[in-house]
């Protein structure tokens, strides 16, 4: 049984669905009116209770723990490694957070960096958790090796999160971060965030003053 090959093929299939299935779904939403793909109106937007002040307090509360090497990030099981480190894709509709609606913060499973707040999460019907915006400065965007999509990674540790798509009109922000559940861990608002694990070398580089421009 070659499970690695199976996973790889499954990944390609689900990744293609993520890309193309959604485009088709967005176009078809007016015709068949399924439970998917309908842009939310302002009145239907959930979670109006999260106040901006709560968000800042929560984010400010996340501490940093310096680590010496990448081995000191959180231990990952095989499935987590396949997605976060090898850029795999979780099968659609199988992730634990696809339909999660609780209030809280989604952090990186590898380094604990806070990535998304639940108030940016919306139901897209694509089979993966969808967010219309990240916590500022926490998500890096790169052209995907497929030459079409935009890959998203954890800015702190470089772990693969998924892809971001624009122009689908799901929300006013008009962006869909299609994130693998397995790349994240959900922390409810009632719990303290664990410290972000930051490589000592990276923290030192951040402290370096920007070089002065040449005269
Ligand atoms: Zn990370």
Question: Could you explain how this protein is built, in words?
Answer:
There is one protein chain. This protein has 215 residues and is of the alpha+beta class. The protein has one domain (3-207): Beta Complex (Metal Binding Protein, Guanine Nucleotide Exchange Factor, Chain A), CATH 2.170.150. Helix content is 26%, strand content 22%. The protein contains 4 helices and 11 strands, in the order H-H-E-H-E-E-E-E-E-E-E-E-E-E-H. The chain has helices at residues 3-32, 52-61, 78-84, 200-207; strands spanning 64-67, 104-108, 114-117, 121-122, 130-131, 139-143, 150-154, 160-166, 175-179, 184-188, 196-199. It has a 6-stranded antiparallel β-sheet, with no helix packed on it. A hairpin with a 7-residue loop joins strand 4 and strand 5. The longest helix has 30 residues, at 3-32. It is globular and about 50 Å long. The structure holds zinc ion. Zinc ion binds at residues 108, 110-111, 113, 154, 156-157, 159.
């Amino acid at each position: 049984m070659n499970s690695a090959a199976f996973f790889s093929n499954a990944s390609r299939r689900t990744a293609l669905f993520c890309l193309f299935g959604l485009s088709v779904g967005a176009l078809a939403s007016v015709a068949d009116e399924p439970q998917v793909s309908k842009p939310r109106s302002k009145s239907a937007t959930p979670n109006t209770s999260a106040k901006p002040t709560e968000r800042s307090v929560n984010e400010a509360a996340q501490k940093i723990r310096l680590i010496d090497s990448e081995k000191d990030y959180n231990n990952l099981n095989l499935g987590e490694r396949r997605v976060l480190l090898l850029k795999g894709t979780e099968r659609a509709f199988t992730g634990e957070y696809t339909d999660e609606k609780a209030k809280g913060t989604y952090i990186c499973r590898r380094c604990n960096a806070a990535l998304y707040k639940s108030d940016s999460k919306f139901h897209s019907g694509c089979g993966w958790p969808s967010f219309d915006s990240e916590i500022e400065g926490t998500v890096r965007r790169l052209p995907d090796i497929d030459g079409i999509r935009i890959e998203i990674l954890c800015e702190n540790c470089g772990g693969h999160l998924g892809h971001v798509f624009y122009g689908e009109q799901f929300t006013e922000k008009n962006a869909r971060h299609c994130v693998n559940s397995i790349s994240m861990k959900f922390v409810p608002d009632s719990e303290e965030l664990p410290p972000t694990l930051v490589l000592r070398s990276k923290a030192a580089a951040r402290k370096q003053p920007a070089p002065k421009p040449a005269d």
